[in-house]
Write a structure and sequence with these properties.
- The complex is a heterodimer of chains A (114) and B (115).
- Chain A has 114 residues and is mainly beta.
- Chain A is globular, with a radius of gyration of 13 Å.
- The relative contact order of chain A is 0.34.
- By secondary structure, chain B is an all-beta fold.
- Chain B is built from no helices and 11 strands.
- In chain B, the strands form 2 sheets. In chain B, strands 2, 4, 5, 6, 9, 10 and 11 form a 7-stranded mixed beta sheet that branches. Chain B has a 4-stranded antiparallel beta sheet with strand order 1-3-8-7, with no helix packed on it.
- The chains are: A mainly beta (114), B mainly beta (115).
- The interface between A and B is medium-sized, with 23 and 27 residues.
Amino acid sequence: GDSVTQMEGPVTLSEEAFLTINCTYTATGYPSLFWYVQYPGEGLQLLLKATKADDKGSNKGFEATYRKETTSFHLEKGSVQVSDSAVYFCALSEDQTGANNLFFGTGTRLTVIP
Amino acid sequence: DSGVTQTPKHLITATGQRVTLRCSPRSGDLSVYWYQQSLDQGLQFLIQYYNGEERAKGNILERFSAQQFPDLHSELNLSSLELGDSALYFCASSARGGQGSYEQYFGPGTRLTVT
């Protein structure tokens, strides 16, 4: 079945450091891939998405590229800020239109210290 | 603010009881999804409704049920509650995003504590 494997956390970085959170997936078809972020005490917010191979999703300085050959969708940011401290979830949706339910990874907690 | 509302924000109840969680989707969204977030199981899909009809089912227990009403709001009913049902329950609704993709927008969640 479909699944997402995400880098174990927690991750602690200094401000302005480079961030990578690894995510790999298993899917039977052609999934859409997502990164969601959950700030303390809040719901999930869509951070970025990619719907086909080689697509790059980007938002707020974060980027992730849909790599079909390595079944990966790693999240990167060149210079993290304290305000980026949150839990990050990689997710996939089996239907290419994204209409189906999401399968989530376990989440990676990021803490950025000044 | 995602535009998805959930009530109540917190719920504390005893084992064996029944509760109802409510969700109002974003204006115009026809699909509603329910997810459960717990420490041991992570984020799991429970059930999806589309325009009043059940569309997909995930790891939803038989003690749980849901429905979507004509005004598109949805309710998740949890009965014969057990300690292990304590979790954060999220509702999401979907809208068409760019390139034909449907993005899911999440509500703030209802935190259920079973004592």
